[in-house]
Amino acid sequence: MRRNIVLVTVDSLRADHCSFMTAGETTTPTLDRMAADGARFESAIAPGPSTPESMPAVFTGRYPVETIDPSDVDEARTRIRRHMTTRETIPERLSRRGYATAGFTPNPYTSQYFGFDAGFDNFEDFTNSGIRTAGDGLLQRFSPNSDAVQATRMFVNLIRQEEVFKPWEAYAESVSRWIESTEQPYFAWIHMMDPHVPYMAPRSYRHQSWWRTLRANVAFWRGDNESALDQSVLERLRQAYVDTIRYTDAFFEHIESVTDDDTAIVVHADHGEAFGEHGSYGHEPYLYEENIHVPLVVSGVPSRVIERPVSLRSVPTLAVQLAEEQFDPAALGTEFAVSRTAKRERVALRGRRLKYIHSESGPEMYDLRHGEHEQCENEDLRAICEGRLQQVDANMAEGRAVRTAANNITEGRS
């Protein structure tokens, strides 16, 4: 019998805050063990620095051919849905191979409204809980983008524990019931929001008071994500983030307890999180390591460490390899992994030691052994990177041309 596959997407989890990736404090003991016993990718790179930029590519293995402006939710939804419904997704690939499929996500950007239900036999996105309050009617009277509405909506969702406030324990039972009642082989996808701002871990996982945690989150929310935070606030904010990671790690132990030995558990993040390293906080459209270097671990397979860069656009291939008992993690590696912002104003080539970022303000090149604060100068390497970027641009242009031709045929204009 083919193995079961569980894919866990952790929102906003940067690689260097997982203890198996650093020599610092222990934050992810369960994931550390899974990484030691299974396959661990040292240089996994997210396709983009936020969920709408990254997850469509993770689920299909391809970037959308259209640019996406995450701030324009309606347009982003239209374009992401078009991408998701015209590309074969991970659940669709596994369904063709006889897998039962289910998805569980509280993230609105990976909900049915953005097309992420494609290919799933069972899909729960928790965006229509059926709970309504008088506050909903009030919100509709105001501009949906006003600060007052956003603050009120966040407060209502905090009380309800909905959307970004939904802890994994609120839907773990739904996941467990589906797994226990489903014939094998199965594919289950779980998107976790716990390390996403606001960083509010349960009491037993907090290393500071609820009040300190709340004040740090409010200070973050009131800022513009590019203004320096007071050092004491920043320390409390980072502590709150680390506490959510510890809480997230408890889910990995839970999912192991409800799956059997024939299950491969794949854990990755959709993007990272910045804490002022390059003047920004959260997940703004930048391509530094804190934004795009993420964990990728596969348990239930022989122990391996893959040092070459691996793009998360390889996750569909990885899933098929697991389904067909042909898992070859080394084959997923590449010389350079590509990451880009949704509007393509920045594109990064991430090698094992070299990082090249092309942006409207000019190129940046870093030797990652020395960080990303002092650029390295090497004209030969710069020329190689520019050549690779031209190849990337050519491939994208070809994809757009194919898409345009297909649309013309569909609409009867060819």
Outline the structure in words.
This protein has 414 residues and is of the alpha/beta class. The protein has helices spanning 29-37, 51-60, 73-86, 90-95, 134-139, 147-160, 172-181, 210-222, 231-257, 289-292, 315-323, 379-410, and strands spanning 4-10, 39-41, 44-45, 100-104, 122-124, 186-192, 263-269, 274-275, 281-282, 293-294, 296-299, 304-306, 310-311, 337-340, 346-350, 354-359, 364-367. The chain has 2 domains: 4-127 and 162-334, 3-Layer(aba) Sandwich (Alkaline Phosphatase, subunit A), CATH 3.40.720; 345-414, no CATH class. The strands form 4 sheets. An 8-stranded mixed sheet has the order 5-4-6-1-7-11-2-12, sandwiched between helices. A hairpin with a 5-residue loop joins β14 and β15. α2 (51-60) runs parallel beside α3 (73-86). The longest helix is centred in the last third of the chain and has 32 residues, at 379-410. The termini are far apart. Residues 129-147 have low confidence and may be disordered.
Please describe the structure with a list of short key phrases separated by commas or semicolons:
alpha/beta, Alkaline Phosphatase, subunit A, 414 residues, four-stranded antiparallel sheet
CATH superfamily of the largest domain: Alkaline Phosphatase, subunit A
**Helix share bin:** 25-40%
The whole-angstrom Rg is 21 Å
The backbone outline, from C-alpha atoms, is globular
Spatial strand order of the main sheet: 5-4-6-1-7-11-2-12
CATH topology of the largest domain, by name, is Alkaline Phosphatase, subunit A
Name of the level-1 CATH class of the largest domain: Alpha Beta
CATH architecture descriptor text of the largest domain: 3-Layer(aba) Sandwich
| Average pLDDT score | 87
